Amino acid sequence: MMADSQLRNLPSVDKVMRDHRLDEILRSTPRAIVVDWVRRSIDLLRNKILAGDDRNEDLVCNEILQEVLSLSAADVGTRMRSVINATGIILHTNLGRAPLAQAAIERMVEAARYCNVEMNLETGQRNRRATRVCELLSRLTGAEASLVVNNCAAATLLVLQAVASGREVIVSRGQLVEIGGGYRLPEVFASSGAKLREVGTTNRTYIHDYEREIGEKTAAIIRVHRSNFSQQGFVHEPELHELVTLGNSRGIPVIDDIGSGCLHDLSTLGLREPVVFESVRAGAALVLFSGDKLFGGPQSGLIVGQRTWINVLEKNPMMRALRADKLILAALEATVECHLSGGAFAELPVLVSVARKPAEIQAQCENVCARLQPDQRLSITVVPCVSEVGGGAIPDARLESFAIRIVGQSVDRLALHLRRGTPSVLTKIQGGAILLDLRTVAVDQIDALVSCLNSRKCLHVW
User: Fold this and answer.
1) Domains of the chain: which residue ranges?
2) Is a pLDDT exceeding 70 seen at residue 138?
3) I need a labelling partner for 450 at 20 to 30 A (CA). Which of 45, 148, 246, 346 fits?
4) What's the CA gap between 301 and 83, in Å, rounded?
């Protein structure tokens, strides 16, 4: 009888929806979603009462509202919005890897409306999707022809299926990689219908290992760059030109999956990563790489190489399923233009971050600290730190940098407030302190970062 009485006192959905404490949520969230949260919260409380959990009548509505607020907070945490990346990880996978150049952003906005994605405006006739961006990619890399798909995994799948379905592809055992999300190369082989033929050992593979395995069923040789780990010590692998010489002598194409899409020699910065045009120049039939890593563009898979093989890929039925949409093509076109214009290190945020000097970052950190107005119980200093390239590129790279170090009573609490802010700020926690590595914070984000740090809910909530 007590349970029946408490159930009768449960408020209606309409009554809860009229509570002024939901006004802010309703301004930013569709009403239908909030109604669903209210219903779920009422149902949750109803089940607790039926299970014998007594409730004070005066607190019932408050409990329902608290549950709704909790559901709203969880929803906000997954809602797509702008983030200031103060982690020092340049290609942060959880933050979408490469931030786009301003030119690419503007081109995407323009293409978001009607646009000539498959029409030549000069002739008024239909043309092949991505015609211009593929021509620009070929010009940029020196390849005969190019192709764009929706990511590099798709590029690998398409190439293996089109070139080697039902036949064998030779690969070094030390290159059978797994990348983020459990993506494993052997599973891609299986999905494509190509048969994997492993050669060599985990740490040492020679050209004669490949030569011994070539047979009537061999369709291709593939070299895969280990983009998220490295091997050191007693290791050996043939150079690409050796594989190409062998492949040409047997009439077998060599596929080079180089991963990050580096277009520039970064050795002057103390970094080493395969460069696209070097693979093309070495004679690889097809070169595969990402558009959203060191290339600095949107998520996409880029394939450049010999026209004969690109034509084979274009005619494959999978191409329709793997093609990129107009927004990706628009951003990619602008990104390629940045590279071609010679302005990549000035216009592409990824390369700007990679090339920044530690002294410049230190000065920026000190400038930000001078503008902060923290609680006196906080300790805020500028300290040296190490940035990472991240995103499956140059795994050994350690870039000297500087960060703002904040020490107080509750590091986790401050990190939460910064993540919840507008804009959201993502930091790293190290040694019981918050670190804000400004290598990955754009110049035009500094004012917003200072405002977030000076807000009442950040440096004054300890």
Assistant:
1) 2-78, 83-95+353-454, 102-345
2) yes
3) 346
4) 25
